[in-house]
Amino acid sequence: METGSIIMMLVSVTALWGGLAWAILRLRRHPERHDDE
C-alpha cells in the first residue's frame, strides 16, 4: 500500500474508534433519561 492510503486508513480507524469511545464515555457520565408518559 502507498503511504497516502495507510495514512487515510489510520485516520478513518481513529475517527471510528475514537467516536465510539467518546460516545460510550459520554453515556456513562450522562445517562439518557427516559420520560415515560
TrEMBL record:
Transmembrane segments annotated in the record for this chain = 6-25
Q: Which domain of life is it from?
A: Bacteria
Q: Which UniProt keywords are present, listed alphabetically?
A: Membrane, Transmembrane, Transmembrane helix
Q: What is this protein called?
A: Methionine/alanine import family NSS transporter small subunit
| Species of the source | Leucobacter weissii
